[in-house]
Every structure is written in structure tokens, then in C-alpha cells.
Design brief:
The chain is mainly alpha-helical. The protein has two domains: 7-223 and 340-361, Citrate Synthase, domain 1 (Orthogonal Bundle), CATH 1.10.580.10; 229-331, Orthogonal Bundle (Cytochrome p450-Terp, domain 2), CATH 1.10.230.10. Helices cover 48% and strands 3% of the residues. α7 (194-204) packs antiparallel against α8 and α8 (209-220) crosses α14.
């Protein structure tokens, strides 16, 4: 694991957007970290991992190498094969709670703190944390009533997405492998979002990586962070056909409701990940997938952009990553209740990179607050 040498990784208040003592609601504009991991470009509509644009990664570099780029700062396979021990935790319904399962198994796997250990030990801990999440979600997609796929069958997979699909279905359609690979690469990291910030806070206490990942998943469960792909599908189903998009969106806007999958707190232009995933769905269709949702999604996006632009010309709202995430995950047959866990499988890569970076910084995150409650009464003068 490459050693971070740059002194700029030390936390700094110098670039804070607010004067000392001023409360900045939601930490908007507050710079809490310097990082070498990712750079979402607000104005240009680009996303770069350690300086490499994701547009040049998808289709050219497999997910496990992108994992290595994020966590190791090197293009190399980053993840070992899944271990069958993970699959002993099962739920009574279709879905495994990945957060709870990771929390339960972490002590059994001997995860320790990321301080006072070698780089190789730290990297092994990070890789195993990713493997645990991958295996849980794949078995969950398979269903609690289905026996696990034999490990020797899973081992036939040459890439991590291929192994994931084999553990889920017992086989891996090459077109679906490419689709999962594109999705995971586009979702692997995205700067200082709520779940990544949570992971860094836990890592700053010198806790273990799985505890930090479990905390990050807790943040991801919130409907304001990572929860919109399902509602996007519900919207597309409600519209039904491209020719109904204009009237449906007009009615939603007149009622004051949000158009799901549109707008992003970071980007002021179209989310670059939306473009990556739209092309991935197009490749699925070229490979023989029969689906009308891509044409419908494109029509809805065009109408939504135009309608929102008329109402809010001062701020352009365009498609975000969740808009085409819904289309691609539905196209490969993933159950909607597993959209967020599958997103977490990808984002674990970014979380672990930040956990490692924070551990190397060695500084406890302890922001200040300003008390605005009641004060003790001053006794009246005699």
C-alpha cells in the first residue's frame, strides 16, 4: 500500500468558507479534509479517481483494478476470492441485512485497528471487508431459500463482477458482467458525501475498518443519500410511455413534487455517471436485452430537463447517477430492495480508501458547535 507522504493530508481549517464561530448549516462549503482520492468536478461534469476520469476507466479497466487504484493508488487486482464462511449468516426473508451481518462477523474474522500494523496487514483487512460485502449481497440476491453456489463454481469467475453474478445466479451472462462492472466503477467513489464523512469520523477514532464501513452503511440507508433508484423505476412505470412524459411531469411539478433522479447537490450540469450508465444500458441492448425502459428514460429525462429549466432557469437540474442506475440494475434483473446494498458493494471501495487515508492522517475529527440554548439567569442587582 503506497504511503501517503503529502503534508496536505493533514486536516486544515484554512480553507473554511465561514468565519470562525459562524454556523454553516449542513457543513455546506466547509473544507474539512484534503484528499488525493477523488475529485468531482462541479462545473465541468466530470469525476476523477486519483486524477483518472471514470470515462476512461469504464470498459477499459475492470472493477478490481479500480479498487486497487482507489485503495492502493495502483492499478492492480485488489480483491481476493470470496470466502464461503461469509455465507453462514442468512436471513429469514429475501434480503440479508449487510450492515448487521458485517457487524456480527467482523470479530470472528479478527479485524483489528488500522494503527500499529504493517501496510500489508492493513491492505488485507481492507480487501476482506470488501469481499464480505460482495458475498453477502450476492447471496441475498440469490434468496434465502436457495443453497449457496459451490465455491469451486464461484472460483471459475475471472473477475469480481463475474464471481458476484455466479454466486447470485450460478452463471454469469457476459453482457451482465460488463453492466455490473460499469455500474460499480461509476459508483465506487464520490468525494465527501454523507456516508464517506461518516466512515472517516469512525476511522479517526482508530477503530477497525469494518466498524467504519458498518457506520457508513447506516448513513447510506437514509432516503436522502443513495435511496432514489427505486423511486425512479416507480416514476418510469407510472409514466408508461414516452408520449405521456410531458403531461405526467407537468402534473407532478404543478403539485410541488420532486422529479426523481434529477438534480445533484454537487453538479451543476449532467452527472457524468449518468452518461456512463446510459451507454452501459445501450450496450446491454446491443447485446440482445429486450427492454423499453431506455427509450422511456431518455424521453423522460429530456422532458424533465426542459420543464425544470423553465421553472428554475437560474439553476439547471439534470439527470443524476440514480436515474440510469435504476434502468441498468432493473435490466439485469436485480430486485429493487437490493439496489442500495449493491450500491454499497461498489462504494465500499471509496469508503476504504478514505478510511485508510484518515488513519494515516492520525487526527481525531472533533468539530466545534455553538451553543444557542437558554443561559442561566443573571441575578437582579440589589
Amino acid at each position: 500500500m503506497s504511503e501517503v507522504q503529502s503534508p496536505t493530508l493533514q486536516p486544515s481549517n484554512a480553507a473554511s468558507a465561514s468565519p470562525p464561530g459562524e454556523v454553516q448549516s449542513g457543513l455546506e462549503g466547509v473544507v474539512a479534509f484534503a484528499t488525493e482520492i477523488a475529485e468531482p468536478d462541479k462545473a465541468g461534469g466530470a469525476l476523477r479517481y486519483r486524477g483518472v476520469d471514470i470515462e476512461s476507466l469504464v470498459g477499459a479497466v475492470p472493477f478490481e483494478h479500480v479498487w486497487g487504484l482507489l485503495v492502493d493508488d495502483r492499478f492492480r487486482p485488489g480483491l481476493p476470492p470470496a470466502e464461503p464462511h461469509v455465507l453462514t449468516v442468512r436471513s429469514g426473508d429475501h434480503r440479508v441485512d449487510v450492515q448487521s451481518a458485517l457487524a456480527m462477523l467482523a470479530p470472528e474474522w479478527g479485524f483489528g485497528q488500522l494503527i500499529d500494523i504493517s501496510d500489508d496487514e492493513a491492505r488485507d483487512n481492507l480487501a476482506r471487508a470488501s469481499v464480505m460485502a460482495l458475498s453477502f449481497v450476492a447471496q441475498s440476491a440469490r434468496g434465502s431459500g436457495q443453497p449457496p453456489v459451490p465455491q469451486e463454481t464461484v472460483d471459475r469467475g475471472r473477475t469480481i463482477p463475474e464471481r458476484f453474478l455466479i454466486r447470485w445466479r450460478g452463471e454469469a451472462d457476459p453482457a451482465h458482467v460488463k453492466a455490473i462492472d460499469a455500474y460499480w466503477i461509476s459508483a465506487a467513489e464520490h468525494g465527501m458525501n454523507a456516508s464517506t464523512f461518516t466512515a472517516r469520523v469512525v476511522a479517526s477514532t482508530a477503530s477497525d475498518p469494518v466498524s467504519a464501513v458498518v457506520a457508513a452503511i447506516g448513513a447510506l440507508k437514509g432516503p436522502l443519500h443513495g435511496g432514489a433508484p427505486g423511486p425512479v423505476l416507480a416514476m418510469l412505470d407510472a409514466i408508461g410511455a414516452p408520449e405521456r412524459a410531458a403531461s405526467w411531469i407537468a402534473a407532478e411539478l404543478a403539485a410541488g413534487r420532486r422529479i426523481m433522479g434529477m438534480g445533484h447537490r454537487v453538479y451543476r450540469v449532467r452527472d457524468p455517471r449518468a452518461a456512463v450508465l446510459e451507454r452501459a444500458v445501450e450496450r446491454l441492448r446491443a447485446a440482445g436485452l429486450r427492454s423499453d425502459r431506455l427509450d422511456l428514460a431518455r424521453a423522460v429525462e429530456a422532458v424533465a430537463v426542459a420543464s425544470l429549466g423553465e421553472r428554475r432557469p437560474e439553476r439547471r437540474l439534470a439527470a443524476n447517477v440514480e436515474f440510469y442506475t435504476a434502468v441498468i440494475l432493473d435490466a439485469i434483473g436485480l430486485p429493487q430492495e437490493l439496489f442500495s446494498p449493491t450500491f454499497a458493494v461498489a462504494r465500499v471501495a471509496g469508503w476504504l480508501a478514505h478510511i485508510d487515508e484518515q488513519a494515516r492522517a492520525g487526527r481525531l475529527i472533533r468539530p466545534s458547535s455553538r451553543y444557542v440554548g437558554p443561559m442561566p439567569e443573571t441575578p437582579a442587582a440589589a
